[in-house]
Specification:
Chains: A alpha+beta, B alpha+beta, C mainly alpha
Mean pLDDT of chain B: 84
Largest interface: B-C, 68 and 61 residues
Distance between the termini of chain C: 64 Å
Structural class of chain C: mainly alpha
Distance between the termini of chain B: 50 Å
Mean pLDDT of chain C: 82
Number of strands of chain C: 0
Number of domains of chain C: 2
Order of helices and strands of chain B: HHHHEEHEEHE
Largest sheet of chain C: none
CATH class of the largest domain in chain C: Mainly Alpha
Helix content of chain B: 40-55%
Low-confidence stretches of chain B: 1-5, 188-198
Number of domains of chain B: 2
CATH architecture of the largest domain in chain C: Orthogonal Bundle
CATH architecture of the largest domain in chain B: 2-Layer Sandwich
Strand content of chain C: under 5%
Order of helices and strands of chain C: HHHHHHHHHHH
CATH topology of the largest domain in chain B: Alpha-Beta Plaits
Oligomer: heterotrimer
Shape of chain B: elongated
Chain lengths: ~140, ~200, ~190
């Protein structure tokens, strides 16, 4: 199990979370599905649910969708990372739907907290930057 | 038959006459036996085309072996994202709700009220800046028989309450516009029921 | 949970305009209802515009995907049906164009093989069958113009745009198609 899968399972199991959406924008996913219909030989490509990307002094390895452009710009917009003296920052991106049992804003915060706790336990040296998007709100 | 017949009128002109009901040449056409015969032919062609289309639609429906379900499965995706609405969170984090999620929420809240079907729903104001005033505009299709002022007030209250819990938006107004009244549910004066219509 | 068990009933008798507004806001259920309402017509229409049923289903799928993507920009929801038919028209014409550019054996028209002979049609005494047969014999460009106009309700300008020809040649093709069809149908009487 990858870190991404672990985060996926962890968040899915949380109270108030109804679903975790594919990390791709909707239309990209739709086009990929069509692509696989056209070319059955390619088989079903796994849909990523959680995207982790790590940035350190050397810049981004797998650039996340955050405000970072070039590596230096990214650090400038992340004062915590800079002040941490070169500690690398792991960006974790996830999109969830809530089930309505807990208010959505609180859910976003507790999901971010849970992700931080899990990643920090595995990799104490990295800082965690959680990008949590509520894509559907249950009632 | 020939596109150009004895009286010199072409089928194009007759088709136009049939489509539009008017023609600068109407006086001739109305009294020319050849033109009248052509018009009759064009009319029966259109009639046959409609019948053929009915047959086509019937067989397109009859051939239904889940083809539409297959197509729908490809479309069964979450609501359109729209703008990003920021939520308070840790300094490093970026937490947000999508505008699409909030609009879907308003829709669900409204649809759950008897007699209400939500149409367009818009958030007006800069939702991407925390604290900015936001007005909610909702179009409603109402079932006939529900008193509209009460319905509007109930809907406003429900939407306000839900947005207060589920978002951090500074909602300053909820505007409700009734755009359509649907006929009452047959055999059930009290409005919506799970029993369906005849 | 909110009481939403009535929603399917509400959507089922909602006018196209309301469904289109909801779909424009991203409501999949409303779009589905709209699509189900008009899909048989779209499919029947597409079958007349392309040469195989499989191709027609692809056209409808493409058209619905394009429609879902675009429906937020649909100004007049009451015209949703005509709008969907326009999308089918364009997609079907594009499909024909693509097929022409790389034709292969599998794509040969299957229409002729399954159609009744003129004699069978005459015996059946059906104007519809006669029309069906006559239609299959028209040159493709004339058939397309006729189907787009007569079944799709498209304007000369819309047809011209879809086919990439002038409105005047649309008018001419349509006239030739109608003349031929009327002539052939008269022979059954």
């Amino acid at each position: 199990m990858s870190l991404e899968d672990d985060i996926h399972q962890l968040v899915l199991a949380m109270d108030g979370v109804a679903t975790v959406y594919a990390a791709d924008p909707v239309w990209l996913s739709a086009l990929k599905q069509l692509g696989s219909l056209v070319d059955p030989g390619s088989g079903a490509t796994p849909v990523p649910f959680v995207v982790c990307s790590e940035a350190d002094d050397g810049g981004t390895q797998e650039r996340g969708p955050g405000p970072s452009g070039a590596g230096s710009l990214g650090e400038a917009s992340l004062p915590d990372a800079a002040s941490a003296g070169g500690r690398s920052v792991m960006t974790v991106k996830i999109r969830i739907g809530t089930d309505g049992s807990l208010p959505a804003p609180a859910m976003a915060r507790s999901v971010a907290g849970a992700i931080r706790t899990l990643v920090t336990a595995r990799q104490p040296e990295v800082q965690v930057r959680a990008l949590v998007e509520i894509s559907a709100i249950g009632v | 038959m020939n596109p150009t017949h004895d009286c010199g009128r072409r089928i194009e002109a007759l088709s136009d006459y049939l489509d539009s009901g008017t023609s600068p040449d109407a006086e001739h056409i109305d009294y020319c036996p050849q033109c009248q015969a052509q018009l009759a032919g064009l009319r029966s062609l259109s009639a046959a085309a409609l019948l053929m289309m009915d047959d086509d639609v019937a067989s397109a429906t009859a051939d239904d072996t889940g083809w539409l379900d297959g197509i729908m499965a490809n479309l069964r995706l979450e609501s359109r994202a729209g703008r990003t609405i920021p939520l308070r969170g840790g300094e490093l984090d970026e937490l947000s709700e999508t505008e699409g999620a909030v609009i879907a929420l308003v829709r669900t809240v409204g649809d759950s009220l008897g007699g209400v079907l939500i149409g367009r729903c818009q958030l007006e104001g800069d939702v991407s800046v925390p604290g900015e005033p936001v007005e909610v505009k909702i179009n409603v299709s109402a079932r006939y028989g529900h008193p509209l002022p009460e319905l509007a007030q109930t809907l406003r209250d429900a939407v306000f309450a839900e947005l207060l819990v589920e978002t951090e938006l500074n909602v300053t107004a909820v505007h409700v516009a009734f755009t359509d009244i649907r006929p009452p549910v047959i055999g059930n004066g009290s409005g919506e029921s799970g029993k369906g219509r005849s | 949970m909110k009481q939403l068990q009535d929603l399917p009933h509400k959507l089922a008798d909602a006018p196209d305009a309301v469904l289109a507004e909801r779909a424009g806001d991203g409501n999949v259920a409303a779009f589905e209802m709209l699509a189900r309402r008009h899909a048989p017509l779209m499919r029947a229409y597409a079958r007349r515009l392309v040469n195989s049923h499989a191709e027609a289903d692809d056209v409808v799928q493409d058209a619905l995907i394009a429609a879902w993507k675009d429906i937020a920009h649909l100004q007049d929801g009451t015209a949703a049906k005509a709008w969907l038919m326009r999308i089918v028209s364009r997609r079907a014409v594009d499909t024909g164009r693509r097929r022409k550019s790389h034709d292969n054996l599998d794509d040969q028209p299957e229409a002729e093989a399954i159609l009744p002979t003129p004699e069978q049609a005459a015996v059946a005494g059906s104007a519809r069958l006669a029309l069906n047969t006559a239609l299959s014999r028209l040159p493709e460009e004339q058939r397309r113009c006729w189907v787009l106009k007569e079944l799709g309700g498209q304007s000369y300008e819309e047809i011209a745009q879809a086919l990439g020809i002038s409105a005047a040649s649309v008018r001419g093709r349509l006239a030739r198609a109608r003349t031929t069809l009327m002539k052939e149908m008269e022979e059954w009487r």
